[in-house]
From TrEMBL:
Organism, as annotated: Diaminobutyricimonas aerilata
Annotated localization: Cell membrane
Pfam families, per database record: ABC_tran (PF00005)
Name this protein carries in UniProt: ABC-2 type transport system ATP-binding protein
Keyword Nucleotide-binding: yes
Length: 256
């Protein structure tokens, strides 16, 4: 039997902005069926990598493949397999959440009755029903509500690979539990997830694989246990990325 293609595969994936090298020849395989965490300090290149992997940003060099399909050579097929929650999600602001999902589902070519049933279920599970009943527009949603409706759009067309940029950011604890159950169910059903996060305990709790990124490169990757090597993920992260300690004199004025 053929080995299944990686959920995502990056070959020498690079991106520069002028002289700034944001992502520097990244090679990575995300195994199918994995729940994969991508961590790294601010500016490490996580969003840039995920944007190139999902067809939102063109690489300067290298390739990104989704289930063996080159994202930039066959974007239609690749995007059919992908569900994406981008960072700083741009959404149509003048629609309600329900209208947005309906529009999105029809745009994806899904049967109207199926879209209607999935929209109702997603709004209920994500606790956006009340906002819908009140006719709240997406432009009036809170940051956490935007994350939730963004996740709903990512799930609607039943993708096999979910790419989520900081999905838990600004999401309240109750909604975070719902989000976790949805994501766990997605992986249990055979899907693959890649998420970026700054919250190490969350990544340790959710993910079975992890990559640590710093200054545009992958500095460690593998199963969670391989990467944390007997310590915590945070210890390993600080060890690899370095920490900044304040001298006693620095910022002494802030409490004066
Ligand atoms: N459109 C752009 N133009 C210029 N530089 C950019 C652009 N997008 C990203 N960069 C730079 O590329 C580097 C990587 O940014 P990126 O947003 O990918 O980091 P990140 O790991 O997602 O950071 P954070 O954790 O803070 O979200 C940073 O130095 C950033 O300033």
């Amino acid at each position: 039997m053929d080995t299944p293609a990686p959920a995502l595969r990056f070959d020498g994936l690079s991106r520069h902005f002028g002289d700034k090298v944001a992502v520097d020849a990244v090679d990575l395989r995300i195994p199918p069926g994995s729940f994969y965490g991508l961590v790294g300090p601010n500016g490490a290149g996580k969003t840039t990598v995920l944007s190139m992997a999902t067809g939102l940003l063109r690489p300067s060099a290298g390739r990104a493949l989704v289930r063996g399909i080159d994202v930039w050579e066959d974007p239609v097929a690749a995007k059919r397999a992908l569900g994406v929650l981008p960072d700083g999600l741009a959404l149509p602001e003048r629609l309600t959440g329900g209208e947005l999902l309906t529009y999105w589902g029809r745009f994806r070519g899904i049967d109207a009755a199926v879209v209607a049933a999935r929209t109702t279920e997603l709004l209920r599970i994500l606790e956006l029903e009340e906002a819908e009943r009140l006719g709240t527009l997406v432009g009036e949603y809170s940051t956490g509500m935007r994350k939730k409706i963004g996740l709903a759009t990512a799930l609607l067309h039943t993708p096999t690979v979910l790419v989520l940029d900081e999905p838990y950011e600004a999401v309240d604890p109750v909604s975070a539990r719902v989000l976790t159950s949805i994501l766990r169910r997605f992986v249990a059903a055979g899907g693959s997830i890649v998420l970026s996060s700054h919250v190490m305990p969350l990544v340790e709790q959710l993910c079975d694989h992890v990559a640590i990124m710093a200054a545009g490169r992958i500095v460690a990757d593998g199963t969670l246990d391989e990467v944390r090597a007997g310590g915590t993920l945070e210890d390993r992260f600080v060890e690899l990325v370095g920490s900044t300690e304040l001298d006693a004199e620095e910022l002494s004025w802030i409490a004066s």
